[in-house]
Amino acid sequence: MLVVSRVDEEQWRRTEAAGDAAVRASCRSFQPLRSVAPMVKLATVVPEEQHFILSSLAPSRAQRRLALAVVLALLVVLILIEGPLSTIEPERIYAFVPAYAMALFVVDLITAVLLFAQFSILRSRALLVIASGYLFTALTVIPWMLTFPGAFAPGGLLGAGLQSANWLYILWHAGFSMFIIAYALLKDADPTKGLWQGSAGAAILSSVALIAAVVGAATLLVTAGHAHLPRTMLDPVRFSTLRLYVAGSQVLLNVAALVVLWVQRRSLLDLWLMVAMCAHLIELCLIVFPVPVRFSLGWYAGRLCGLVSGSLVLCVLLYEITTLYGNLLSAVFARRREREARLLTGDAVAATIAHEVKQPLTGMVTNADAGLRWLNRAMPDLDETKAALDRIVSDGHRAAAVIDRVRAMFKGDLNRTAFDLNSLVGETLTLVGDALQKDRILVRTELNAQLPLVIGDRVQLQQVLLNLITNAIDAMAVSDKERVLRVKSDIHDDGAVRVSVADTGTGVSSQDIDRIFDPLFTKKPGGMGMGLAICRSIIEAHSGRILVAPNKPQGTIFQFVLFANGATSAGALRGEQPENLPHSSHA
């Protein structure tokens, strides 16, 4: 089982490493599951555990290209609307306002919730600020919709005046720009700094209450005090000249926020916030310039840009969650495979030891019974008793050697010596002589006297022969037909040594022939499924090959090829079909 166990161990080690690297394998930007688990429990997250979070994950080249493509697409829309399409006058659709407002409310509210969730994990003050900014836009859009002239009432609800909705829009966009600037300034190169030390829930509730109070105060200001507001609207449709100057100030504030973000940019979140601010700039230009009226083509296009602006970060957050979830599943599956490999390896170790030690122990019990029978005679036969005891001693030494070889299997060590394979065949047949006589099995050997010496581990190769011959005996023991065991050794065409063990037993079914060397696979009622796996492992550890095929007209033939005197068998390495094997399977 050298290769079986060694492969299992190597796979185990690879899987154990891959269990931690599974997330990197499927998405290089993310860290393994062991970095995710502490994320929920720790108030302070170390930098290594933040690399898969949007607020600290560095954008890839493809993500930067995608962001640039979005900005260029928005610029193309701006050029078209400000240029060739500027003279188009679409119909006034007052129902567009509540539809747009509710869509933006839902998008910004979900974005705020997701950002608040990240704050509860990372405790970053910057995240708390940007989450509050999105909550501010989500809450402000509701009074803006209610006070918009013609949306629900000719003059708007909440006691609004002509200037109310427009000033809410101005405060809304200016406030969001201020939140962006505050977010960028609160960012720190060291993620462990600038963290919220108190309760995350209390911070979130306080932020929600504060934002709601600010939005309520702003709504009260522009509705109850609308008569004192500067005139940015000439009528419910046309903007005043003052609105152009206010829009210019908003553009400058947006540019300032964009510059601060550019200077402080480090993460994927920063990248898409910059794209969102670009969309805000284009929205302002489309709404006010060149036609300063509501329900113009630019006004409609500007609202759509505003919706795009609000949706960008949400889409990236949802992508992050989906990707992280998929990679967490990959990590869980990798850990599960690791546990299964661990259990399989443990079963293989136990089965290997039990299988290999069982044979010499059985021989010891048999010889002990024989010795007792010789002693219990009226005239004890001391010579036979002595021979039985000698065989018990020999089996004991063989059991110890087997245990040492099992340990060597898992270490990958081989005790290589040069020996005669024919003599090994004779010794092995002697070991199973009693079983052969008991089941009345005829043994035919065809051993090539010119066989060269083989270099390998004698004990392990004897285990191979013993397993193959024992399996042949078991297969013929339940057969009512002629029982013939044929053991043959010869020289392969390229100088390698080939040994065949053929029986006339029940044979191997065609559906099992490709699985017969798999660990823990057996068809015998009391079998462990490790014997042939051990044979394959040992032969492959000696750089050889083992094959199986039906033995015409009945039974099975096993054949293994070893290199003589350390030579390399090119034919075996190429997978050439050894003669007399019409069908074969190998590991």
How would you describe this protein?
There is one protein chain. The chain is built from 16 helices and seven strands. The chain has 587 residues and is of the alpha+beta class. It has a five-stranded mixed beta sheet with strand order 2-4-5-7-6. It has a two-stranded antiparallel ribbon with strand order 1-3. A hairpin with a 5-residue loop joins strand 6 (545-550) and strand 7 (556-562). Helix 14 packs antiparallel against helix 15. The chain is rod-shaped and about 130 Å long. The two termini are 12 Å apart.
Unreliable sequence segments: 1-51, 566-587
Largest sheet properties: 5 strands, mixed
Percentage of residues in helical conformation: 55-70%
Proportion of residues in extended strands: 5-15%
Inertia-based shape: rod-shaped
Secondary structure topology:
Elements: H1 2-26, H2 33-41, H3 61-82, H4 96-122, H5 125-147, H6 164-186, H7 200-224, H8 241-264, H9 268-288, H10 297-375, H11 382-411, E1 416-419, H12 421-431, H13 433-438, E2 442-447, E3 454-457, H14 458-477, E4 484-491, E5 497-502, H15 531-541, E6 545-550, E7 556-562, H16 570-573
Helix pairs in contact: 1-10, 1-11, 1-15, 3-9, 3-10, 4-5, 4-10, 5-6, 5-7, 6-7, 6-8, 6-9, 8-9, 9-10, 10-11, 12-14, 14-15
Q: Any key phrases for this structure?
A:
alpha+beta; 587 residues; 61% helix; disordered C terminus; two-stranded antiparallel sheet; five-stranded mixed sheet; 7 strands; 16 helices
Quick take:
Helix content is 61%, strand content 7%. It is of the alpha+beta class.
